[in-house]
Amino acid sequence: MKKVxxxxxxxxxxxxxxxxxxxxxxxxxxxxxxxxxxxxGPDRRHWVWLATVTTLCVWRGFAGRLPGGExxxxxxxxxxxxxxxxxxxxxxxxxWIDLLVPFAINLIGLVINFFFGRWIINDLFMNLYYPLxxxxxxxxxxxxxxxxxxxxxxxxxxxxWFYVAVWTVVPTQLAGWAMWxxxxxxxxxxxxxxxxxxxxxxxxxxxxxx
Length: 210
Prior knowledge:
By secondary structure, the chain is mainly α.
């Protein structure tokens, strides 16, 4: 087993810096709220949900029950078959939903628009988000989800795959969002950019990283 952590305790700033990450993860988790956020801007529902998530994450972070927010490292050796902790299972399952589901929906929507000239991403978020999210939860139940498995034995490889996903999804989603926002500066109308009939203004790419 490879020893990966020598420290006995996590420094307070290290623990605190992980709390905003998990606030973001859980705030954008409800697909219908996130779709509405990017299509129309925040409303009362978003602020209520943000306040709820912030309160819970600060509480759990203070209690040392968030990944990265523990008083001392839980995983010190890659390959050590320790039982995974329940909060790690929940948090990493939520993070995988944030990474995979919006990315998949945006990709499907862009392919449909490219080949068929139909812009249906907003409809996909309404109809497809939760079935795909349920598939990720099912993968966790079946012990397939990286970093949310029942054992930490394969944490070394699973951590690698997790960060590959982060560094793939977040930059590409940010780039897609930027292109959507900057298209008007290249003399492209909304309908030219996405083959959207004039007057249809509510649909837009939704991403976990933008």
